[in-house]
């Protein structure tokens, strides 16, 4: 599932944070089997794609055993950061979820 | 899908789309508004502060039933290092006025209310409907939209795009380029709930008075960015945002940065014992005037975040969104009355009218600021540390005489940033600001 080891990466002494505990508060209507974000097949991720393993605010991106970057987007908060950062490399295909699906902010 | 032809289609039900739809529907135009969320506001994120003036010009009596949290009587600006902040606070009882100037709001609730007004005015709203593309005639004029509801289409004389920062429809139709990682900020935010009397005692408030705090300094770990803490009635909105390209290089996680901000010794006591009920993230277009795309064309107008209408220096966005939405709506009404088509030449009236408002005047005034802040990261690290050290030297009573303390402070600035560096920064800032 989501990136469970993620912490305040890169900063010594930064507090340990599990993003799942935050996402747990949110409401989602998951469009099962129709992820709105897809990563293009690759052998080696670009620097930008790799950065998403720490930059995605919902911790959707992680690296697998083969060094490829994978995404599980059930917890996506639809910010668009991954699309903007990888626009040049074109590694992320980003669409809005179908109407009504995805995150449902109670407060926003 | 929809057989009727509309005077206007509005994409999005945020502040800009609602302002446009309301303005047109109130004047009797036939308006279709499309929103991809389950309800208006369900995809929208903001701090959030509502600037009354922009909404008053659309709905003068909004205070009667809008879901407002607290009116802002105190603004705190903090420059922070790891253990302290140097603050500039402005609090005035003058802000306890009959028609307060700024309010904190909760966007999901506010957007729903605004949308109710839009529908009362006569616009047709379809939620859970994602617009997938613009439809054009053989001459390239925009004549409607396609949606993901069974590939349904809808047609109108003009399409107003209030689709927000991730404006995929406009981008994919070639109306504007993709956002650039160095001119867009990623902000993360949490909603922390506390009993209202706890909030009032912690922030020195009575009744519906509110405080907003904007913070910069080592909290962004050398990145260009800011943090905020806003008081709502029974909750505190806390968040932090930095430029996306800075985040990418830093290796920091957004939630790790927010957690560190929350644990800062000056912040922690404010949140003590609170319950977090939501975690959100959103992009903020911060490129300003120089990043602005084309604002209109044959059959279309762009409003709000999709058009980069954000004044990052003053943390203003929703008021620019409402104002651009209103003026786009007024322009369409004006053309309709004159029985003129929504051609590119005619819609240039939108930009002409915007030029007369604070929107374009402010964006133009600050056009050099985004670049200045991006290229001068020491503003966010070196200076807050120097300020804090200076304050501590000055206030600590330890037997050192005052003249020696002054010398020490001047010396710390010279060694921290060098004399040419200090003068250069002052000149660059002055040039960017004017």
From TrEMBL, chain A:
Keywords: Electron transport, Iron, Iron-sulfur, Metal-binding, Transport
GO terms for MF: iron ion binding; iron-sulfur cluster binding
Domain of life: Bacteria
Function: Could be a 3Fe-4S cluster-containing protein.
Protein name per the record: Ferredoxin-like protein
Lineage of origin: Bacteria, Pseudomonadati, Pseudomonadota, Alphaproteobacteria, Rhodospirillales
UniProtKB/TrEMBL annotation, chain B:
This protein's UniProt keywords: FAD, Flavoprotein, Oxidoreductase
Cofactors required: FAD
Domain FixC-like C-terminal, chain residue ranges per copy: 370-434
Top-level taxon of origin: Bacteria
Keyword Oxidoreductase: yes
Keyword Transmembrane helix listed: no
GO molecular function list: FAD binding; oxidoreductase activity
Sequence ranges assigned to domain ETF-QO/FixC ubiquinone-binding in this UniProt record: 208-283
Pfam families: ETF-QO_FixC_C, ETFQO_UQ-bd, FAD_oxidored
PANTHER family: ELECTRON TRANSFER FLAVOPROTEIN-QUINONE OXIDOREDUCTASE YDIS-RELATED
Family statement: Belongs to the ETF-QO/FixC family.
Function description: Could be required for the formation of a functional nitrogenase Fe protein. Probably accepts electrons from FixA/FixB and reduces a quinone.
Protein name as annotated: Protein FixC
């Amino acid at each position: 599932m989501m990136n469970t080891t993620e912490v305040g990466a890169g900063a010594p002494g930064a507090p340990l944070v599990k993003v799942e505990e935050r996402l747990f508060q949110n409401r989602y209507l998951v469009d099962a089997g129709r992820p709105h974000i897809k990563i293009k097949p690759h052998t080696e991720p670009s620097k930008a794609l790799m950065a998403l393993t720490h930059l995605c605010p919902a911790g959707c991106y992680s690296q697998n055993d083969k060094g490829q970057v994978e995404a599980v987007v059930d917890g996506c908060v639809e910010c668009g950061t991954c699309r903007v950062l990888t626009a040049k490399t074109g590694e992320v295909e980003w669409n809005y979820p179908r109407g009504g699906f995805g995150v449902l902010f109670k407060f926003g | 899908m929809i057989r009727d032809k509309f005077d206007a289609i509005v994409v999005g039900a945020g502040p800009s789309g609602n302002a446009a739809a309301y303005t047109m529907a109130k004047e009797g135009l036939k308006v279709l508004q499309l929103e991809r969320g389950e309800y208006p506001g369900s995809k929208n994120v903001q701090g959030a502060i509502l600037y009354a003036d922009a909404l008053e010009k659309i709905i003068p009596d909004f205070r009667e039933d809008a879901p407002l949290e607290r009116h802002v009587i105190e603004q705190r600006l903090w420059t922070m290092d790891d253990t302290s902040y140097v603050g500039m606070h402005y609090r005035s009882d003058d802000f306890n006025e009959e028609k307060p100037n700024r309010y904190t709001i909760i966007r999901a609730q506010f957007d729903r209310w605004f949308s109710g007004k839009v529908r009362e005015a006569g616009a047709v709203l379809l939620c859970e409907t994602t617009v997938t593309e613009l439809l054009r005639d053989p001459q390239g004029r925009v004549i409607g939209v396609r949606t993901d509801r069974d590939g349904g289409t809808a047609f109108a004389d003009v399409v107003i795009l209030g689709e927000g920062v991730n404006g995929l429809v406009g981008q994919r139709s070639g109306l504007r380029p993709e956002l650039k990682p160095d001119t867009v900020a990623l902000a993360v935010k949490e909603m922390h709930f506390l009993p209202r009397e706890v909030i009032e005692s912690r922030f020195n408030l009575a009744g519906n008075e509110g405080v907003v705090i904007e913070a910069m300094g080592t909290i962004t770990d050398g990145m260009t960015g800011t943090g905020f803490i806003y008081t709502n009635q029974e909750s505190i909105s806390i968040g932090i945002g930095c430029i996306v390209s800075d985040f990418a290089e830093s290796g920091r996680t957004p939630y790790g940065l927010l957690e560190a901000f929350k644990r800062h010794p000056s912040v922690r006591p404010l949140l003590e014992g609170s319950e977090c009920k939501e975690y959100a993230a959103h992009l903020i277009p911060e490129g300003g005037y120089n990043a602005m795309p084309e604002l209109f064309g044959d059959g279309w107008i762009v409003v709000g975040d999709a058009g980069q209408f954000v004044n990052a220096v003053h943390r203003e966005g929703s008021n620019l969104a409402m104002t651009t939405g209103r003026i786009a709506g007024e322009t369409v009404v004006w053309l309709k009355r004159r029985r003129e088509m929504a051609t590119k030449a005619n819609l240039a009236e939108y930009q002409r009218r915007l030029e007369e408002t604070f929107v374009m005047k402010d964006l133009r005034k600050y056009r050099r600021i985004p670049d200045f802040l991006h290229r001068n990261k020491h503003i966010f690290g070196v200076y807050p540390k120097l300020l804090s050290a200076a304050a501590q030297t000055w206030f600590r009573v330890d037997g050192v005489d005052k003249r020696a303390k002054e010398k020490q402070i001047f010396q710390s600035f010279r060694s921290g940033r060098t004399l040419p560096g200090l003068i250069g920064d002052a000149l660059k800032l002055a040039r960017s600001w004017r």
